[in-house]
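Appendix B. Raw example, untouched.
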Amino acid sequence: MPTWKQCTKELLPHSVDTGGFSRFFNGDIMPKHCCDKPDCQICVTYPSSIFAELYHDEKTIISDHKSYLAFKTGEIVFHEGSYPNGLYCVNSGKIKVSKYGPEGREQIVRFAKAGDVLGYRALLCGEAYSASATTLSDAHICFIPREIFTAALQKSPALSLKFIQLLSHDLQTAETRMVKLAQKSVRERLAETLLMLRNTFGITNDGLLDVQLSREEIANIVGTATESVIRQLADFKKAGLVDLRGKHIAILDEHRLADEANLEEI
């Protein structure tokens, strides 16, 4: 399967988001499809997608005009500071969305998985991306051009409402995160992060969290030093809350871990 870079004849500066398109010297944008794109009507992620309530003809228009992009683990989907030309819809794979502070330290702000959309806030506001998106696994992502996405919003009040609800949820999540960073201890935040990863990505048949993150990446979610995460994970293992197998983590007692996180519900 070719990667995005292999499918793009000419890579552009990071300030330009091609969305899987290559720009030729005459300024025209030509689509470069990485592989055969799936029909939106039969996509396995569609029932849970934000586009699920569109009418048949609206789905057909999106399906006909989208691009289907393949990414390898660790590749950039879009860069912080670049401007969007369309919307990304994750077909498969895992993605992290992160910002970098003045000293170059990464802060992971959220994750995306199959059925999720990326880049919508910047696209709707006409602003540059405020964060970067990077794949945590091999991924396939559909790219919907700006004009097609905007037309769908204008035609479908239900879709517009869905995106308003999505943005409202993002705001609530950001507010909640600010309170936790200010009022919860590192131990509480780490316990809650592990449960969040379980709820987001699920577990494997071996009982492991179905996402592989380095200790540094976990620290970048929690908002602490890597050494603190290593120490707290060792304490959790000693207490029988988790098991550590290299980069993989298994949650052994979710109820006690929820108590550590000071959560009323898991």
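End of appendix B.
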